[in-house]
Amino acid sequence: MRKLSRDEWIGGAFTALTDGGIDALRVEPLAKRLGVTKGSFYHHFENRRDLHLAMLNEWERRGTAQIIDDVEEVAFTPLEQLRALATATFASDPVGDAIETSIRSWAATDETVQAAVARVDERRLGYVTSLLRAAGMSKGLAERRARLMYRVLIGEFIWRTAGGPASTRTELDEMSILLVTGLEAT
Amino acid sequence: MRKLSRDEWIGGAFTALTDGGIDALRVEPLAKRLGVTKGSFYHHFENRRDLHLAMLNEWERRGTAQIIDDVEEVAFTPLEQLRALATATFASDPVGDAIETSIRSWAATDETVQAAVARVDERRLGYVTSLLRAAGMSKGLAERRARLMYRVLIGEFIWRTAGGPASTRTELDEMSILLVTGLEAT
DNA sequence: AGTTCACCATACGGAAGCGTATGGAGGAAT
DNA sequence: ATTCCTCCATACGCTTCCGTATGGTGAACT
After folding, report:
1. A57, A163, B54, B132 - which has most CB atoms within 10 Å?
2. CATH of the domain at B37
3. Can you tell me which residue has its alpha carbon closest to the C1' of nucleotide C20?
4. Nearest CA-CA partner of B24 in A182, A4, A21
5. What is the pLDDT of residues B115-128, one digit of tens each?
């Protein structure tokens, strides 16, 4: 008979945790919250996963569209464009933060989600990279700087969902300056 | 009779998602995975939350301890210390990444968890800040740079769990350099 | 050999959730 | 008015899980 210690239980729980995933978002409580019953839900969706994928699609759609247009209209120099982009993407949005956090956590255990997240990341990164390249930065450096900024962005979202501090205007400005460091003209 | 559209369902699901939380980590599957039954679990733990809090404590313990000693032994200049710290904290650790992601997601819906995360963050931030201050950086700037680095760190963890790229050595070095930008001597 | 204790299996009641089946209400169209 | 179709309520069977109660097993100690 196998015997386990308390710590083995904890350790096993941690590894099991890396799988797990979603598992929130039950349909019946959701129905109650919306003031209807399951009958409504199963009219609109095949099953639970259908809803989840629909949410994923919605997130991807909103995550890849716009923003880009808004930035280029009001900014001209690379630094100004970066600042405008940072201001737009770092804007406080508790709901968006939580969604971003949940989906990225979900992606850890679902390849379909992971692919969707990868598409969104690709798109966002591509924009920042092209912005830096257009300013004269080398391809490799631009890509590294874009990834750096993107990590800051993800960190911002996740940190805020757990009660962390939002980036101040000063911090965003300083970050923008650091990101373009190495370029001759600002 | 209230009627909802498919999109209202999706919208309601998103807001419900912001609550949700944990909800993975069932005890019976966990027992099966470990080759035992529930009897074992309830011998070691009061209930499910007891396990969760035990995991949280374990995470906090490992998150606040060490690392610091390892860094100061091998590095002398601020830049070298930052590089050493970055190398240590950014080290690839899929399990650690997933735990970090899950706990931060969990923190969004549980004040106890949020407090624990805040303690860990406080500690980590304090170290980076003191490192920069000791190098002659002003208090405010040091704190902003520390938060910036911390966002990159969180972003690194979360991005990797979703299949994102790990920071290369070059990227870590460049980040370290940017973080100390503004200091006279490196 | 008996006792004690830590560790675990088994069985149970109850709750919650999934997905299906079926019918009803109400608007729109004809 | 009848028909049709959309949206939803209700009821059901099934599964999964929680937490408890109770007993069993083996090791250690005496």
Report:
1. B132
2. 1.10.10.60
3. A42
4. A21
5. 999 999 999 999 99
